[in-house]
Amino acid sequence: xxxxxxxxxxxxxxxxxxxxxxxxxxxxxxxxxxxxxxxxxxxxxxxxxxxxxxxxxxxxxxxxxxxxxxxxxxxxxxxxxxxxxxxxxxxxxxxxxxxxxxxxxxxxxxxxxxxxxxxxxxxxxxxxxxxxxxxxxxxxxxxxxxxxxxxxxxxxxxxxxxxxxxxxxxxxxxxxxxxxxxxxxxxxxxx
Length: 191
Prior knowledge:
The chain is α+β, with helices and mostly antiparallel strands.
């Protein structure tokens, strides 16, 4: 019964639209669209006025009181002491290398023969130990190894990473990572 009532209403609407002049129907539709647009604009204006009023109230408030005064920046001597305190111990390089090898194994990487070079920065009074590791594994695992190494050895830097893939579809990537360990012979004390 309802479907028949709706279909008869639809038929009456279609017949009424066919009987009207197209110019008058277009003008009516345009006027209706203008009224709807003006309603939306009025609503947007009311929202904008409310936002402006809230901004004016916020601007009228006094600025927050400065409760805590910022600490003065550290002195050069304090910075230098912190630098030397962050250096790793030169005597434990073998343990640090074992940590790197364990992290590589944890990430499923195959390590080949690496290159190791010790040096001393006389001006900075610290030692460096540069490690170049050729590794093979998945791309994500290699990056994870790099991040894990930097977390485990905070006195290390990841200086260079180079990738090479033999075939486009290959999941295995060959990479060359160059890390530098910054070390002190006596931790926390410049030499």
